[in-house]
Fold:
Amino acid sequence: MIGRLNHVAIAVPDLEAASDQYRQMLGADVGAPQDELDHGVTVVFIALPNTKIELLYPLGENSPIQGFLDKNPSGGIHHICYEVDDIIVARDHLLEQGARVLGGGEPKIGAHGKPVLFLHPKDFNGCLIELEQV
Structure:
């Protein structure tokens, strides 16, 4: 059901410093910051030959990333995103299998302008999973 790895998301306490680190130390192609109001984050995508890294920074006081950074002040891997052909078919299959879909189960539009869903980390070995329709 899942396709290729779309990105690995890393929550960071300093978005500019993290972007500079990837750009200067690793020579990566670092995009511009994008505010994602519906998700409460500012994101920066780093293009790699085979996938992307997404840097996440809190946007506003109610950002879910702030809670993550409170527990992990140095930052860390927040979630892994996999591509799916049809997010509704994927969601329904996962619900039938007993997985929990976060946020009421309805897709939201993600940073790439495509529908996304998040799956409860307790159902996936402690890893928050994002599904993105391609």
In short: The first strand starts at residue 5 and ends at 11. Helices lie at 15-25, 64-71, 87-96. The radius of gyration is 15 Å.
